[in-house]
Write a structure and sequence with these properties.
nine-stranded mixed beta sheet
């Protein structure tokens, strides 16, 4: 299933994407798509989308109404680590993104004082059940589904201002998630997904999750050693090469830019960039 939340004139409506790519309203079947509803996906799977009302001109809200936490993994692609001139990490690098999640196509406002805001297409993993000390072999059983994440980063805040990376990762609007939550049964191998990001129509990032240093299962197992993962948690698993920081000369987001990014089977995002105060 492909599930989403659509903004309408009467509020946010949970929806299911049919075989033709049309959102179908789950209003009356589900109050909202939340962490709690991830425990009852079988009930939704039994519905026939063609019997549900179609929704026009989808304006995507974040995929869950109550995403609890966004965990992020840094330098998790071998080719991205090489572009950054850094050694591959021996264990997953963990940081948090604590800004409110935004919809897939919501505009991105550059933070005040930004000079080095950057793009990062990433595979998002949505946790579906409480998970603690899980083995690598069993880790994917904890996954409710997958999504696209743009881990937008202000590199000067992240790297040049001291402290933790979270400062450069959590500016307002830096959390596009979606457009869909694609259930795990539709993604038999999360390590075989093509991904891309275009800036103003120019291909910047092109990669595949096969080049992850730590697989989705390894990431979940590792995090669950230290943190009890909960339904509704999202893990953003790292980005392939082609970010602005890695270009020569470096290139960063400016007012009027447009990002277009996506992952095989998980849909695509499109965000327009605007200056602070615009």
């Amino acid at each position: 299933m492909k599930l989403c939340r659509i903004r309408t004139a009467s509020g946010i409506v949970p929806a299911m994407i049919d075989a033709e790519g049309c959102p179908r309203s789950l209003d009356g079947k589900l109050d909202d798509l939340t962490a709690a509803s991830l425990a009852d996906l079988d009930t939704l799977a039994a519905l026939d989308p063609t019997t549900l009302p179609a929704l026009e001109s989808p304006d995507y809200a974040p995929i869950l109404g109550d995403i609890r936490r966004i965990f992020c993994i840094g330098l998790n692609y071998s080719d991205h680590a090489a572009e950054a001139g850094l050694d591959a990490p021996e264990q997953p690098i963990l940081f948090m993104k604590v800004c409110p999640p935004t919809g897939a196509n919501d505009p991105v406002t550059l933070p005040k004082g930004s000079q080095k805001s950057d793009w990062e297409v990433e595979l998002g993993v949505v946790i579906g059940k409480t998970t603690q000390h899980v083995s690598v072999d069993d880790a994917l059983d904890s996954v409710a589904g997958y999504c696209v994440v743009n881990d937008i980063s202000e590199r000067a805040f992240q790297i040049e201002r001291g402290g933790q990376w979270v400062k450069g990762k959590s500016c307002d609007g830096f959390g596009p998630v979606g457009p869909w939550l694609v259930t795990a049964d539709e993604v038999p191998d999360p390590q075989a997904l093509d991904m891309f990001l275009d800036l103003n129509g120019e291909r910047c990032q092109s990669g595949n999750t096969a080049t992850m240093i730590f697989s989705v299962a390894e990431i979940i197992s590792h995090l669950s050693e230290f943190i009890t993962l909960q339904p509704g948690d999202v893990i953003s698993t790292g980005t392939p090469p082609g970010v602005g920081m890695g270009m020569k000369p470096q290139r960063f987001l400016r007012d009027g830019d447009e990002m277009h990014l996506g992952i095989t089977g998980l849909g695509a995002q499109r965000q327009k960039v605007r200056a602070w105060g615009a």
